Predict the 3D structure of the following.
Amino acid sequence: MSNQVWFIAPQIPTDFSIQVQETTYNVHKYPLISKCGYIGRLEIQPLISNSGNVLNLENFPGGSETFETILKFCYGLPIDFSPDNIAALRCASEFLEMTEELEDGNLISKSEAFLTFVVLSSWKDTITVLKSSENLSPWAENLQIVRRCCDSIAWKASKDELTSEDAAPNQESWWFNDVAAFRIDHFMRIISAIRAKGTKPETIGKCIMQYAKRWLPGMEVELEGLRGYGHEKCNLQFSIFSGKKKESSGNSKEQRTIIESLISIIPPQQDAVSCKFMLQLLKMAMMYSVSPALTTDLEKRVSLVLEDAEVSDLLIPRYQNGDQGKTVICMTNSSEECTMLDIDVVQRIVEYFLMHEQQQIQQQQKTRKFNISRLLDNYLAEIARDPNLSITKFQVFAELLPENTRSYDDGLYRAIDTYLKTQPSLTEHDRKRLCKIMNCEKLSLDACLHAAQNERLPLRTVVQVLFSEQVKMRAAMHEKEPAQIGIQSEQEENQTSATMDIKALKAELENVKSQMVELQNDYCELQQEYEKLSNKPKNSSGWSLNWRKIKNSLHTKPAGVEIGDRQDAPKSPNTILRRLNPRRRLSMS
């Protein structure tokens, strides 16, 4: 215990002792009574005596450090106001009743003026004052220090939101980290004030997610921290290791309070926070045994955005108790319903989702087409690996969705096949019961080929798959037949046209050959006539001239004469072949 002695002058002894926390102050009576109404009201005369009795100020706001500053003020010494000490000085002056009735310019009025005109006009100073007010309850609440700081922060944050509407949608505001540093009750006060200013729900949601990331580190734990399945049924042990020391019960209560508070202040709009965040918050709520009413409310909120979920988000462990750091799930010799994952909570979420969709259909509201069949089939394939999952639970979950929701049953077939692998000792009756869930007609051709060779399926299911496969192949063949008939008819038409062209070409070629034979005969006759006439010398010159003309007509084409100009004259072989094919030339010797 340390003692502080204050003297106005060395020759004046102290006549009053005050204890604050573990420190005792030997002071003078008059300076304190003249400015502190609380000390003046007390009947302290019996205490102020040579016997050395001490006035104990219990629960003094700000502690001994703040009381020393007030002693300086009472003795007329200068003091410095700052954002770090102004809240404590304001509360302590109210505790000691340092009003204007005792002295003008007393500590209440001076600290209030500094708080109102200096601190609340600055963002940084307001954050500092509100942070220091966390240890000043209930004085800071009663003096409206917390409310005024929260309103000032909300006003500045909402003003920044209005001036930064063109910012990127995924960009965090600059004030998120400052607001996320507060205690949960002050954080809720700020969020309520910000919401009252008309701030966008998306902005409030991002701030809430930032706060949870800072104060709930367990939200980041995924299935990588899970120790897997046991090897035998009813002998399943599962643990979560967060890598931290075991938390105290007080810290556990604080975590539960934070989770419950965050659930209660999430904006009602669907796009305020992500589905992944709400499912992570739901895992924490299950871990810390949050009140059932808030858990149910969170499950309904998740069901509204279930389409945005991923399979890993739905893998919620089944917690046996609320221990932190290490949670043992499903100890040995447990019931068959003790699975590693909490399937019941996911089943409730899906049921809420279907109820919501049915209500919108009945109200004839325009709804977007939903399709969560792939999500649930993948989830079903994950839980099918659990050896403690009963066939009844598997069947009930698989039949949650209406039949017309699934376009294909490939995902459902994969889940059933996974369950059959995990449960090799299933009876034939249970296998048939399990395979009745899927519609073989909705299996793709690849799934049919796989199922037809799957030895784990019952014989009846294999027969149905083979029949469905034949129907699909027959339908595929029928779809191809019209196209094939069209191609064949086109090919036949092309082949007929080509045959006719060949026949015409052969006929013309035969005609050319016959004309060539006639010309050769004429040539031979003229040759013989020429040889006869060549023996007569009288008319040799005239016959010789005529013969040249005839010979030239056989070997050369007259210039400027078209084939069509002489219909009666015999056509030469070269001319006829040029008409049939201009590229071919026939040479005659």
